[in-house]
Amino acid sequence: MAAVRAAAVALLSVAVLCGAGLRRSQAIGVNWGTQLSHPLPASTVVRLLRDNGFDKVKLFDAEDGILGALRGSGIQVMVGIPNDMLADLAAGGKAAEDWVAKNVSGHVRDGVDIRYVAVGNEPFLETFNGTYLKTTFPAMQNIQAALVKAGLADKVKVTVPLNADVYQSPTGKPSDGDFRADIHGLMLTIVQFLASTGAPFVANVYPFISLYADPNFPLDYAFFQGSSSPVVDGGVTYQNTFDANHDTLVAALRRNGFGNVSVVVGEVGWPTDGDASANLDYARRFNQGFLTHIASGQGTPLRPGPVDAYLFSLIDEDRKSIQPGNFERHWGIFNYDGTPKYALSLAGGNGSTLKPARGVRYLEKRWCVLKPSADLADQKVGDSVSYACGLADCTALGYKTSCGGLDAKGNVSYAFNSYYQTMDQDARACDFKGLATTTSVDPTAGTCRFIVEIDVGGAAAISSARGVAGGVASVLAALVLMSSMLL
Ligand SMILES: *[C@@H]1O[C@H](CO)[C@@H](O)[C@H](O)[C@H]1NC(C)=O
Ligand SMILES: *[C@@H]1O[C@H](CO)[C@@H](O)[C@H](O)[C@H]1NC(C)=O
Ligand SMILES: *[C@@H]1O[C@H](CO)[C@@H](O)[C@H](O)[C@H]1NC(C)=O
Ligand SMILES: *[C@@H]1O[C@H](CO)[C@@H](O)[C@H](O)[C@H]1NC(C)=O
Ligand SMILES: *[C@@H]1O[C@H](CO)[C@@H](O)[C@H](O)[C@H]1NC(C)=O
Q: Where is the signal peptide (predicted)?
């Protein structure tokens, strides 16, 4: 088994290197989020990473099971600290020392290749209203001191992944980039810290959000095949928003005397569902364009050379908050079960494409649907959909989404099945006051996929079904039933 895997990895590397005649100038990383009702086993995911040639992974916290599975994998790790821990870690050195002892030192000793600690996640986002402005930097200092004390500071660097809204250009030209005025001083303090420890500036860059926020955003400027609306900046012409955004940061660093701080792209990607601009075609165009762009090794106009980046993200997460939008649960390059969503060559160009997770176990091929005889005008239907979508994921339903073409009954069935699968196909979860029935005929139609969940041993459902924002779910349910109510 191990030999087979080693051979597969070796073959893959050869394929990657020969693929399109492109030199693999820089390793590519990926974000591994874990907000799923039914996560694949950590060992399955680590094998998926290796099979596909990822050599870096970014985690949002320090789960023991995941770090354990990465032991000896050869994959470099950025371990995250959630924002809600920042206040404690800022308050005193002891908390930081405990955190490092428990979540870093032991794992490093066991052979987990931890390279970075990411203190907080986009803590200065404007939507956080300044909640983490006072705690982020002290927490970074305390974690740094704890790493020094543990003798790990040379190997493990402290940084903070920041949303691209911490820098901007008043003119739109990258060369005029600077840090956001309300946090300018704080940013310089942090950048000074990064410069003195040799840690990178980690920035999350999202052309999709630019498009989502502004329907007039020029679509072709998001991709990497030239643009009808390039940005001319002195002698440089920017053909894509990634380069322009990246170089706005580089210019901000230079302007403030830190032109030598390295930049890591902490998150970059495109979602596939939950919004009119989130679909397989755009996601493939963006991600493949990006990967081919960085595989060329040309870099950006202000930083020629390799680009260090982590794709966002590995696998769809059906428990993510949809407060920013329904697309939040659909960023994966893989579906919930580790199947690739579309052909993507990590090496760029025409190299070998994504391989699926191996050895995945599914529940039975059984779905839950609305009984054909049910009456849509029945009040129980609306209540049942609200209930189902409150506890399961209905974000594939909506205007121009993968299931946007369903009829009214299809909508209800989709909601019922989503709940039934989330509840591990428990018979009681396909009743809905007598409105529902199970079927062994796959109701999948066109782009709308009715899933069969993976088998995680029955433990996942009920506990993880909590915590979905009820308000948002009922809005969704209302949408699902909109036209049926009007009948
Ligand atoms: C890390 O260490 C601290 C101890 O300071 C612990 O409370 C925390 O839950 C650990 N695990 C994670 C995932 O952060
Ligand atoms: C930020 O402030 C707005 C407006 O006052 C509020 O609606 C929102 O809930 C706040 N967000 C957080 C994270 O505190
Ligand atoms: C970057 O520049 C700063 C300020 O001049 C200096 O303190 C630091 O040592 C430099 N770091 C590297 C990695 O060259
Ligand atoms: C990929 O293959 C197509 C068709 O064979 C070719 O036109 C294209 O130039 C190739 N792309 C790269 C980057 O090699
Ligand atoms: C099904 O639900 C979607 C949104 O969730 C809605 O746009 C559509 O109108 C619904 N279709 C019918 C026929 O009710």
A: 1-27
